[in-house]
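Input record, target 12 of the design panel.
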């Protein structure tokens, strides 16, 4: 060791749990592809069910993890002051320690780590919600049955809860304290260091005492198992093994070298992305609400093609409804005017404009305004929903890309196994869809008997329900009489 230099130096570091292999780049991109395939094949029946089912189960796993992350945050240790040897700005150590702490004799140590799974979970659940909700709004093929509608409602509630939890967890990253690594000045650290598991003997008292005792005794330093002393390896996370925790440092030009600079840029862009998401969700939820409310709108369909073909008829209906309401209000006002004239009263200015403020005209006006807002929401939602999904996916993937390199490469089994699973599922579903073409005569006879039995049960259930509805209607009529 060079006795003329400082005993040890401190360098800013980034402690993190890398993205789990299940949420790495290949599974995420496969998830996006499944969502797109679900939208493009929603008329095919079994094929869309395979794509949508695989995407939904993957997103459901991410949503459950978001609940766990928010419900069990990592416990923060109390901050502790650590004195360090003074290093001037003109030191020659910059080449070996690009994030060297200089011009100070103390820093604050508070072990913590970033959980990068939170970024991947945010990407998955929000993207899933942005796709599942419009599918429930626009797709009559996927929601023509009540059971499917219930399933979509439950799934959208799960995705909404997961989105809220992951957004809350993402906001907690801003509170992660700066981390440091402590190293001998003549032994440059590794760019990436993985934890071997924290040993209680590496902290003998306060952080200040532990760090100084480690570097004052070479045998103590040799026991820590790493070139540098990383207090952040003393932290933990509920869903992770301690050995998966990593400590990074990079060159001064990298985003990882100055995480605060990167987070500031992300936070600045948050307002635009989140505003777009809120607008998209509001429009789709409003449309979903009007879809099930007992309100008869004059908009003929939720399909943009039908709306465009019927645009003149829609506008004519709006004008005619207002015209009829105003005409009837004027007739009532004329009758009232004759009564006032015959009685010798002078017509006031209020009497001339009163037809516009009658209850009949106001109801018609509110109906036209409501239908106008529904029409505006439909058209705007059709435009903004796809743009929001694309913008969010591009933004969040840029965010994740700046988190650091993936744990695994695409050629490793942990990445391509998901694609193989979907391919095998598609093959199985395709074969099962051909079961009647491949079936023998005896199998067809058995299926016919099962279908007849099932048809009889359905008929009995339908008759019982019809009788129940008829009884309820009769009782209601008798009660009114």
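The sequence produced for target 12 reads:
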């Amino acid at each position: 060791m060079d006795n003329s230099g400082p005993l040890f130096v401190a360098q800013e570091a980034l402690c993190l749990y890398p993205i789990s292999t299940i949420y790495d780049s290949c599974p995420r991109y496969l998830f996006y592809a499944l969502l797109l395939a679900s939208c493009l094949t929603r008329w095919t029946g079994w094929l869309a069910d395979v794509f949508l089912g695989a995407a939904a189960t993957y997103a459901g796993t991410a949503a459950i993890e978001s609940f766990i992350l928010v419900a069990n945050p990592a416990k923060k240790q109390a901050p502790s002051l650590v004195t360090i040897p003074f290093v001037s700005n003109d030191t020659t150590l910059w080449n070996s320690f690009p994030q060297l702490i200089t011009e100070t004799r103390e820093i604050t140590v508070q072990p913590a780590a970033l959980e990068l799974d939170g970024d991947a979970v945010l990407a998955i659940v929000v993207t899933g919600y942005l796709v599942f909700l419009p599918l429930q709004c626009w797709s009559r093929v996927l929601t023509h049955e009540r059971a499917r509608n219930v399933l979509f409602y439950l799934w959208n509630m799960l995705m909404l809860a997961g989105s809220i939890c992951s957004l809350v967890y993402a906001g907690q990253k801003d509170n992660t304290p700066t981390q440091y690594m402590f190293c001998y000045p003549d032994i440059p650290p590794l760019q990436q260091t993985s934890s071997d598991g924290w040993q209680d003997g590496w902290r003998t008292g306060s952080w200040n005492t532990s760090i100084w005792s480690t570097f004052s005794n070479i045998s103590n330093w040799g026991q820590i198992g790493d070139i540098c002393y990383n207090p952040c390896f003393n932290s933990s996370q509920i869903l992770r093994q301690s050995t998966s925790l990593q400590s990074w440092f990079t060159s001064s030009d990298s985003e990882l070298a100055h995480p605060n600079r990167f987070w500031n840029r992300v936070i600045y862009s948050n307002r635009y992305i989140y505003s777009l998401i809120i607008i998209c969700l509001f429009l789709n939820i409003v449309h979903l609400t009007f879809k099930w409310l007992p309100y008869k709108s004059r908009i003929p369909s939720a399909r943009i093609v039908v709306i465009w073909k019927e645009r003149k008829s829609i506008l004519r209906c709006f004008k005619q409804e207002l015209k009829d309401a105003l005409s009837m209000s004027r007739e009532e006002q004329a009758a009232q005017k004759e009564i006032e004239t015959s009685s010798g009263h002078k017509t006031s200015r209020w009497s001339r404009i009163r037809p516009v403020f009658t209850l009949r005209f106001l109801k018609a006006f509110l109906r036209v305004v409501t239908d106008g807002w529904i029409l505006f929401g439909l058209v705007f939602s059709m435009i903004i929903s796809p743009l929001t999904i694309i913008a969010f996916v591009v933004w969040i993937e840029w965010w994740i890309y700046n988190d650091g390199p993936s744990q695994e490469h695409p050629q490793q089994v942990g990445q391509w196994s998901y694609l193989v699973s979907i391919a095998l599922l598609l093959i199985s579903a395709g074969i099962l869809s051909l079961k009647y073409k491949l079936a023998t005569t005896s199998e067809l006879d058995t299926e016919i008997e099962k279908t007849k039995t099932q048809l009889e049960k359905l008929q009995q259930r339908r008759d019982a329900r019809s009788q129940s509805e008829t009884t309820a209607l009769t009782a209601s009529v008798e009660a009114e009489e």
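The chain is about 60% helix and 5% strand.
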